[in-house]
Every structure is written in structure tokens, then in C-alpha cells.
Write a structure and sequence with these properties.
By secondary structure, this protein is α+β, with helices and mostly antiparallel strands. It is built from twelve helices and 20 strands. A hairpin with a 5-residue loop joins strand 3 and strand 4. The radius of gyration is 25 Å and the shape is globular.
Length: 422
Amino acid sequence: MDRIGKYQLLKLIGKGESGTVYLAQDTFTGAQAALKLLDPAVVRKAGGELDGRRQFMNEASLAGKLRHPHIVAIHEASVTDELSYIALEYVPGGNLSQYSAPGSLLSPEDLTQIAFKASGALDYAFRQGIVHRDIKPANLLLVSGTNVKVGDFGAAFQSKLPDTSSAMVGTPFYMSPEQTRGETLGHHSDMFSLGVVLYQLFTGRRPFDGHTLADLFAAIRTDSPLPPSLHRPELSPELDQIILRMLEKLPQDRYPAWVDVALDFARVGQFSLYMRKIPDSEKFVALRKVKMLSHLSEGELWEMVQAGTWTMHPPNTVIMREGEAGSSLFLIGSGEVKVVKQGRLLDVLAAGECVGEMAFIKQGEFLRQATVETMADALLVEIKHQDLEQASLRCRYQLSLALLHSLVDRLAMADQRLVRAG
């Protein structure tokens, strides 16, 4: 068999207890996909509380429903008596298991960004009514750099569907205390599991261990893990606090929500004011504060994060000069800038605002109408039209609509000033 439906099978990627995964190519679009085939023998043996077939069906039911830049996309699924498969987004970088042992660890800076993105993805899933229930290094996949994607939702609990399983689900080393007791799980359980994963990725050691399953579960329920920095001294006390809070025994003692976890990782990522490389977490948080982008989805904001050129500027830096040509749009992530025309102060703009809308809308070379200069340390993102060529049509549309609304608001404000001056 070298073809299934519209997918041409290219090579074997892996084989598990319940099926086989192939690298495949969509013969319509040319895009690559990971094609997961359910072993017919698993179907014949089905009957367990959360057997391979049930997990396969659970994941298949999510096809097309989870759309987030840091979740593996499930393109389509087909389930028949003869053949069952799921077509998944292909992630070439492998999973994080390869970086979980001493000697192969990623840098703390990169791991902080991975933690931020994984937290955001699990927050999105939870807001869709989904608890993953099997967070582990093997289910966190790397595209490239720090771009991580959460995968394998076969064990997930979906609040919109009845949960008929009474089995304990998950991977023992990464289970939360409540998971080891077979209790009903919420987002705090995934938070604990991600805390275990991050502890291992940062230090090369698991926080809990045991010679038997009973010993392991007893450690998870009662043992207090050592601060990660005791295993890896370069780690900061702030990072210790975040991970240890995620590993609190009682769900209510962990972070209230995923967004709180993500924001703490974003703060840890701000390790140097004038660093040349601005962390993706800081970029994303900055864009969420831009008022005119409030209608963009998380996925569209991540497109903007990747499209722009981000720089940190000291005070008194001229960003654009009156009379000079230019067509870039600048969004202010932090700090303040002043707008001056013919030596006269027109406005002071702060984080969440933008400059250069008219030139950006006009596209071609446009003479700037005013000079813009930083008044304090400022994080700015420069957006050029060519930067957005890879962005989705919806993202570009939402940005254009936001710019028009911003321009109308600016003109209305100018009219009011003219009336008051008259």
C-alpha cells in the first residue's frame, strides 16, 4: 500500500501499540502530513476503558476543531471498518524527549520561550473545553528554534462529550496527584504535568521517581521536589518559583489560570533590556496590549509576532523623520514616543499605540508628515508590507481594518482639537 485516499505515503516515521505513522504528501496541495493509521488488530481487540481504538477515535473527533499556532493541527480523519486514519500536521523537529537528559539540555532562555508557548496552547485548549491529560516530552514537538506544538490529544477529556471512561489515563511519571487517584481532572492537572516536564527539561532530572508504580505515585502525592536551580545553578530563583508553584500538591495552590503561568514565564524572559534578540513571549504580550489589534485571534497575533522586526530603543532615538520617505508601520510595545511637526509637539504616544498608519496604507514611498522620537526606553515592532506576504488573508484583512479604524479615530481627535482652537 503506497497511497491512502489523497495521501501518498513517503516513508515510515514510527510504529506504536495501536498503529503506524507515515510521512505522507497531500497529492492535491503538495503539503506534507503525518498520517496515523489504526492497526486493524486493535479494532478487533477493542473493549478496554481507554484502549487504542478509543484513543484514536477521541483524537479523530478533534479534526478541524483545534486551531492554534502551538497545537499540532488535525487536518482530517476517516474511520471505517476497513481502514481508519488521521492526517496530522507534520512537525519535522522531533519531540522534546531528545532534550530531556543531562548533556542534551536546551538553554534556559529557549526553554522559557517553549514554556510560554506551551502554556498558551494549553490555555487555548482548555477554553475549548479540552484537558489534555497526557502532557509529556514526547507530546511536545519542535518545528524549529523555540516554536513548539502540543500534540497527541488521544487521551484528552472533552467537556462537550460524555466521558464514559473510568480508567486512569496518562503517563505515570508526569501524572498529577489527583490523576494518580483517578479523580476528575481539570486544567490544573495539565499544569502539574507541564511542571514535571519543564523540571526535567531544565535540569535533566524528573522531580519524582520510584522503583515501583506505587512508590512513584506516593512520591508524586507527598514528596516536595528540590528547587531546579540546585541541579542547574544557572537557573534563576524566579524560575524555581514558577515551576515549584506548578508542582503544588493541591490544585488550588497552583496558578489560578494558564494565563498567569504564561505571564510569569514572559517576565522571566525579559532578562536584558537592550538584548538583540527579543523573546517571542515579550513580543506576544506587547501585541496583546495594542488596542487596535484587539480583534485579532491568538493565531493572527502570532503571525504578527513573526512578521515584524522587533527592536529596543533608548531615549531620544529618532524612529522616523519629517519629510523623509517611508512606508513602514510601527507598533509601540512598551515605552513612550513623541510626535513633532515643524518643531511643535503634536502628541505623546504610549504602549499599545501605533505610528505610520498613513504611509503604510498608501504603501508606496510616502513622505513622513512628522518626526517620531522615543522619550523613554521603547520596544517597537516595524511592519513592512513584504513582511506580511506569508501571513494569512484574514490576518492581513484584520490589520487593514484596524488601521482604518485607528486613522478615523485620529482624524476625529484632530477635528475636536481644531474646534477647541477655533
